[in-house]
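Hypothesis: this fold can be encoded by more than one sequence.
Test: take the structure tokens below, design a sequence, compare later.
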């Protein structure tokens, strides 16, 4: 049987509440999420815990499509969630929709 878990669309922020290249922490149920508005205007959402030692990625430095963990500087792709070499790991990513300047998470 093909079971699909129903996803919800939740409003989490307004575009103007997300300064460029500054992360914002958002908590939805058990999910701790880091929201980013990149310099190219794209909005990205990833798990807010670094796979190394749980550093809060929403407080990291954003550069292009990457965030650098504030604790030990691991570099993480905010689109794929993948940690860049020489380090290894992956964080969960969440789909985002923007409608009329409102940011929604699909979760
Ligand atoms: S906790 Fe993120 S690099 Fe160490």
């Amino acid at each position: 049987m093909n079971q699909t878990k129903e996803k919800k669309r939740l409003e989490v922020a307004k575009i103007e509440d997300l300064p460029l290249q500054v992360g914002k922490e958002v908590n939805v149920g058990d999910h701790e999420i880091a929201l980013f508005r990149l310099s190219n205007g794209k909005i990205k959402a990833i798990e807010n815990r670094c796979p190394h030692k749980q550093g809060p990625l929403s407080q990291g430095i954003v550069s292009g499509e990457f965030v650098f963990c504030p604790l030990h500087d691991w570099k993480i792709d905010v689109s794929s969630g993948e940690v860049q070499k020489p380090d290894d790991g992956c964080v969960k990513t969440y789909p985002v929709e923007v409608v009329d300047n409102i940011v929604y998470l699909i979760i």
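The mean pLDDT is 95. The domain at 9-106 is CATH 2.102.10.10 (Rieske Iron-sulfur Protein).
Hypothesis status: open.
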